[in-house]
Every structure is written in structure tokens, then in C-alpha cells.
Backbone:
């Protein structure tokens, strides 16, 4: 026979409810932080795209190519180092930056065509 808790059943149920309440409160609090961080990420991305759109217009005016692989290599090196220092997976950081840069280049190509 396995060991059973010594508490009466209704008392055990009450403490389980208390744990559930504490877990629920922690989950809500963590999700509030996540929502704030997501909002900050969206605002930062919007600012970044404002800057890259200006770069795109400048490049188009001066007949410069939409992509700059050397600049991208420098950024990836820098971002990977920042990620490692921040305990973020550098592989993920690189993928994330490449995802954003691909979208920026798509915008620059569209600006050049317009
Ligand atoms: C914004 C630029 O255009 C492209 C997009 C980049 C980016 O999003 O960081 C970097 C290099 C370029 O391929 C740039 O040349 O600076």
C-alpha cells in the first residue's frame, strides 16, 4: 500500500485550491510582463522599419543595391555576441535578424521598382 497524506480529504482539496490560486496569480503576472515585452518589441520593430524605409529611399535615389551582405555579416556577428552575453541562443538571434533583414530587402526592392 502506498503512503497517503495524513490530511483529511477536504483539507487537502482546500490547499490544492490555494496552490491553484497562487499558480494562476503567477501565470497572470508573468503574462502581463510578456504582453508588455511584446508591445515594446512591436514598437521597436516599427521604429526600425521607419529607419530602414528611409535607407531604402536613399539607396533607390542613389542607385545603390537593396542588399548589403557585408553590413549584414557585421550585424550578425554583433548580434550573436550580444545574444551570447544576454544568455539568448545566438542561433535563434541570427535567424531572427535574417528574418527581419529579408523583409527589409523586400521593401527596398519594391522601393527601387516604384
Ligand atoms: C538597412 C539596410 O539594408 C539592408 C537591410 C539591413 C537591415 O535590415 O539591417 C542590412 C543590410 C542591407 O542588406 C542597410 O543597408 O543598412
Residues:
Amino acid at each position: 500500500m502506498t503512503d497517503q497524506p495524513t490530511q483529511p480529504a477536504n483539507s487537502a482539496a482546500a490547499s490544492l485550491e490555494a496552490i491553484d490560486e497562487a499558480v494562476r496569480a503567477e501565470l497572470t503576472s508573468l503574462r502581463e510582463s510578456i504582453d508588455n515585452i511584446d508591445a515594446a518589441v512591436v514598437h521597436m520593430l516599427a521604429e526600425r522599419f521607419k529607419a530602414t524605409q528611409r535607407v531604402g529611399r536613399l539607396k533607390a535615389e542613389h542607385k545603390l543595391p537593396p542588399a548589403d551582405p557585408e553590413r549584414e555579416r557585421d550585424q550578425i556577428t554583433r548580434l550573436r555576441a550580444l545574444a551570447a552575453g544576454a544568455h539568448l541562443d545566438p542561433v535563434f538571434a541570427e535567424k531572427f535578424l535574417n528574418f527581419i533583414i529579408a523583409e527589409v530587402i523586400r521593401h527596398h526592392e519594391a522601393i527601387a521598382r516604384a
Observations:
- The two ends are 78 Å apart (CA to CA).
- The domain at 9-113 is CATH 1.20.59.10 (Chorismate Mutase Domain, subunit A).
- Residues 52, 55, 67-68, 71-72, 75, 100-101, 104-105, 108 surround ISJ (CB under 6 Å).
